[in-house]
Amino acid sequence: MNINSLLSSVMGSTSSGVDKAVSKAKSGSMPGGLMGGAAAGGLAAMLLTNKKARKMGGKAIKYGGMAAVGGMAYKAWRNHKESQTTTQITNIEPNQSFGSSTTPAVPAGSIFDLAEEKPTQQVENMRLILIRAMISAAKADGHIDTSEQTRIEQQIRDLGINAEEQRFLIEQLRADSDPITIARLSESEEQATEIYLVSMLAIDIDTTEERHYLDRLGDALHLPTDLRQSIEHEVKNAQTL
């Protein structure tokens, strides 16, 4: 299965976006990358209502695909770890400024290095998990009925990806939107951070169902409150860039 092809299909760009995301992420910028074309027909946009698809398109350009997702998740996780160390040393409340606004370069070869051209098997598996998490979160408000699902499945078949990749995406589309199932895919706090972050990117929290989904996901991932706040800060900060 070509994971890059799947990512491109979900996020609405061509596979060349991987190379652009890698080079621009290493230069410290926030590229258009893989998510840049979401509003033009990526599966992420298909899964959303028209209103949300328009907003997703705006977010996509700012977030910059897997390179930026990894950087944002790493920054949120690192800030959480640093606040823990500060609290242990000084016995004061963690600093809620969440650090600087600059997205740091992720450690090469780490679970956060999502845009690496030659990723480890662990990172490849993580990319698939993140696709599952995004699709599950995008369905959290329950707006996809039978006719809408049929339409999206046909669009998946028209994406130009192979049969195995089509089958994977359709299986995720047909699966229940279940934060507990998604949380069970995580094996570490670092992975949990990435799962929670991409889930936030895939939805616009404007319904009680979406807020409830994220709360249940965060609980099932065992994410501390300050880490959730740091993740949400990174997402909101990217929206205002």
UniProtKB/TrEMBL annotation:
It comes from the Bacteria. It comes from Marinomonas alcarazii. It holds the Pfam family DUF533. This is Uncharacterized membrane protein YebE (DUF533 family).
